[in-house]
From TrEMBL:
Name of this protein: Uncharacterized protein
Comp. bias regions, Polar residues: 258-272
Region spans: Disordered: 166-185, 254-301
Top-level taxon: Bacteria
Native source organism of the sequence: Furfurilactobacillus rossiae DSM 15814
Segments crossing the lipid bilayer: 36-53
Keywords: Membrane, Transmembrane, Transmembrane helix
Length: 328
């Protein structure tokens, strides 16, 4: 067996040597071509590297804004969370669709009309964008966005006045505490802003993405919002069921404790550690809160449905296209 292995290796070496001799003879016969062979190989490698570099999109020095991560706008003046939900880019038809959501962080309801957007490109391009403010969702459609844009910057600001601050200022002025400054009084508005960056990457290119009308974008977004509200209602149903089961368990505990108390010496420290009656009260409060949340969701669904009807009928008016600026 070992001898056969040696024979196979020997034959392989002979064949390899024969091949090397043929290559050497060819190089000897083609001396001029041999002189240009190495430079040609180096040039081919350089051309390949340049082509590959050109095909990879250039990005900015700014980090990408993560999907699903909220940023706060407005500070204490009607604070709101704005979240980048999705972005898709059709490179062939040169348009991008960006979806963002809005939610309040305080008891004050955030009015989408007070939320302002400014879109800029990192590289100068003749880009125009349209904004679709839809209840708690915003859709940005960027048009004429050519490959090589490197990145998009979206600055979101809230101009919603702080109702509580305005009431306090009005109260102070009426009492004469700020009479000296009443002539220069200005309503408090948002001073903070949220900045989102979308770098040019291949990961969200979708050349099958279809350009659609504003009506289609709006209706689809509102339908998704309705689905979200219905999921919230179902989630609250599950919570209510848990709260009710806890109440049943607490009542059993109450009955058991009342029965056992007939045969046990009262211990004030043990009695204070767990109070089924107080827990039942807490669970009932949680049920009321969950039902209130469901009521709000059902009302919001009706508003979404009304907005869908208004969009389809033309009663809901969209704003005009806006020219994007360039990041300075």
């Amino acid at each position: 067996m070992f001898k056969q292995f040696i024979d196979i290796c020997t034959k392989g070496v002979h064949r390899y040597q024969a091949w090397l001799r043929r290559v050497h003879q060819w190089l000897e016969d083609h001396f001029r071509l041999r002189k240009f062979l190495l430079p040609a190989i180096i040039l081919g490698i350089m051309i390949g590297l340049v082509i590959n570099t050109r095909m990879v999109p250039k990005i900015t020095r700014f980090p990408d804004s993560a999907l699903g991560t909220a940023q706060q706008v407005g500070g204490q003046n009607g604070a709101a969370n704005i979240t980048l939900q999705s972005r898709q880019y059709n490179q062939n038809q040169q348009f991008m669709v960006i979806s963002m959501s809005l939610s309040g962080t305080t008891a004050q309801v955030v009015d989408p009309e007070f939320i302002h957007f400014k879109v800029s490109t990192m590289v100068p391009q003749d880009v125009r964008y349209e904004l679709l403010p839809l209840a708690n969702n915003f859709i940005l459609v960027l048009k004429h966005l050519k490959p090589g844009y490197q990145g998009i910057q979206i600055i979101v600001t809230s101009k919603q006045p702080n109702i509580q601050a305005l009431q306090q200022q009005a109260s102070s002025q009426s009492s004469g505490a700020e009479s000296s400054s009443s002539s220069s009084y200005k309503p408090a508005v948002a001073s903070s802003k949220a900045t989102f960056v979308i770098n040019e990457r291949k990961g969200f290119i979708d050349n099958k993405l279809q350009a659609r009308s504003r009506t289609d974008y709006a209706v689809d977004s509102l339908k998704k919002s309705i689905v979200g509200e219905r999921k919230s209602i179902k989630q609250q149903d599950k919570l209510i069921a848990v709260y009710k089961n806890q109440i049943i368990a607490d009542r059993h505990e109450e009955d058991s404790a009342a029965q056992d108390s007939q045969y046990q010496v009262s211990d004030s420290s043990t009695a204070a550690s767990y109070d089924p009656g107080a827990d039942i009260k807490t669970q009932k409060g949680s049920i009321k809160d969950a039902q209130k949340t469901q009521k709000t969701s059902r009302h919001q669904i009706k508003l979404y449905e009304k907005q869908i009807d208004d969009v389809r009928s033309g009663k809901y008016k969209f704003g005009s296209d806006v020219s994007a600026s360039t990041v300075k």
